[in-house]
Design brief:
Blueprint (H helix, E strand, L loop, with lengths): L2 H8 L8 H5 L6 H9 L3 H9 L5 H7 L21 H15 L14 E5 L3 H12 L3 E5 L8 H4 L8 H12 L4 E3 L10 H7 L2 E4 L5 E2 L12 E3 H7 L9 E5 L3 H12 L4 E6 L10 H9 L3 E4 L1 E8 L6 E12 L8 E4 L5 E4 L2 E4 L3 E2 L2 H4 L25 E3 L10 H22 L1
Parallel strand pairs: 1-2, 1-4, 2-3, 4-16, 6-14, 7-8, 7-14, 8-9
Antiparallel strand pairs: 5-15, 10-11, 11-12, 11-13
Helix pairs in contact: 1-3, 3-4, 3-6, 4-6, 5-6, 7-15, 11-12
Length: 422
């Protein structure tokens, strides 16, 4: 038995009310899996997690535990919370190493086929749970690799790609067929899939960086953070000054990546206070430890070109203050007139949110929300009863755990839908 892990597990109070479970988007039975760790019964701990999750090695490492499960831990009220993420990663790694199965339940095959479009966290989770329910599942993926954001968006210094690949392969080993380099609107259509499958689940993500609408935003040298991380096509940052606009984990990942690629000076500019940053505390601290600078309560208002108008040369920022506007519960940033300042800058990276790819969305003959996402009901079903959707493409909270939750819930809804058709 691993003594260090046992000590961390023993720290858990095994609360009967399970506030940590309520704080977990996947609703993992956290006290139960930790209780098995206490007894050294790692396979049983893993199978508890497997009832609700397919991506334990990933979630144990990169979930925002502070604002989810660990943030709800009773231990955290007067001291440090139980290190739930570390315990989950330990059990998940054991499962990969010793080849534990997801479940000992026997799978009863059903004569129904489901197509999953997109092999990210939502698609993989949906596929895994559907196969475990006995359905024949095929994933259509636009890249040559599965994983979505966990493969193409989260830097390897935060998430080891070998762990990602082993996690994905374990899901595929359930018996999932994959068709690579298949992209909606290019060489794949819903119409052809509807003819060959009984149900479809769309999980293509929403990874187009949002723009701020400021002057100079279209200059060469201004990049979207999501695209830089996804495609890994960076300019030469050597000895350059780079501004990162935003305060989430994408902003932290961009800042730390750019710094590693040789940037002389990296400054994160965020319009609110530090305590309001949506990025995890540990991600912010690690960025600070890597000498990344932070400029809080500032907003970018203009990006200025060089004399030839060919590239970024400077940015103009303005100080902000936080005020409570009428009918709002959260303090909002308001620009302070006359507080503008000019800063030398070589590159600007926007990390202020993301949205779906418009050209792909225009090919879909199903209802969209007012913000351009796929509209679904409480069962993740679209306006076409045969088609379901989940993950970032429906405009939900943009984390791996929330995407995986939607994948699992959609699998349950798809199974219910198909059972009615038998």
């Amino acid at each position: 038995m691993n003594q260090k892990i046992k000590e961390k597990a023993d720290y858990c109070l095994n609360c009967k009310t399970k506030p940590c479970q309520k704080g977990c988007p996947l609703e993992n039975d956290i006290p139960s899996f930790i209780d098995y760790i206490k007894k050294g019964e790692y396979k049983e701990a893993y199978q508890v997690l497997s009832k609700t999750s397919m991506l334990q090695p990933v979630c144990g490492r990169i979930c925002p535990h502070e604002s989810q499960c660990q943030g709800s831990c009773i231990r955290g009220i007067k001291g440090e919370p139980t290190t739930i993420g570390e315990l989950e990663a330990f059990v998940a790694d054991k499962a990969l190493e010793e080849e534990y199965t997801f479940s000992d339940e026997k799978i009863e095959k059903k004569n129904k086929k489901v197509a999953i479009i997109g092999g990210g966290p939502a698609g993989l989770t949906c596929a895994g749970f559907l196969v475990r329910k006995g359905y024949e599942v095929s994933i259509y993926e636009k890249y040559k690799q599965l994983g979505g954001i966990i493969q193409h968006g989260i830097p390897s210094f935060r998430l080891n790609k070998k762990i990602v690949e082993k996690t994905i392969q374990k899901i595929l080993n359930l018996g999932i067929q994959v068709y690579y380099e298949q992209e909606l609107g290019k060489n794949l259509t819903l119409e052809q899939l509807k003819k060959n499958y009984d149900a479809i689940f769309i999980a293509i993500g929403a990874n187009v960086s949002s723009k701020m609408g400021v002057e100079g935003e279209n200059l060469p040298g201004v990049y979207g953070g999501n695209e830089l991380l996804e495609y890994n096509l960076h300019p030469d940052y050597e000895n350059k000054k780079v501004a990162i606009i935003g305060g989430g984990n994408v902003a932290m990942d961009c800042a730390r990546t750019v710094k590693r690629l040789g940037a002389k000076e990296v400054t994160v500019i965020y319009r609110r206070a530090e305590e309001q940053m949506p990025a995890e505390r540990k991600e912010i601290q690690e960025a600070k430890d890597e000498k990344i600078q932070f400029l809080f309560l500032h907003n970018i208002v203009r990006i200025l070109p060089d004399n030839r108008g060919e590239k970024v040369d400077k940015i103009e920022c303005i100080q902000t203050k936080l005020v409570r506007k009428e009918s709002e519960t959260r303090l909002s940033p308001v620009n302070i007139e006359g507080s503008n300042k000019i800063m030398d800058m070589d590159y600007v990276i926007m990390a202020t949110g993301s949205k779906p790819e418009e050209s792909v969305m225009n090919t879909l003959s199903i209802e969209k929300s007012t913000k351009g996402y796929i509209h679904v009901d409480e069962n993740y079903q679209t306006t076409d009863p045969q088609i379901f959707a989940g993950g970032d493409i429906i405009g939900q909270k943009a984390t791996v755990a929330w995407a995986a939750r939607s994948g699992r819930k959609a699998a349950e809804a798809i199974s219910e839908y198909l059972n009615k058709k038998i």
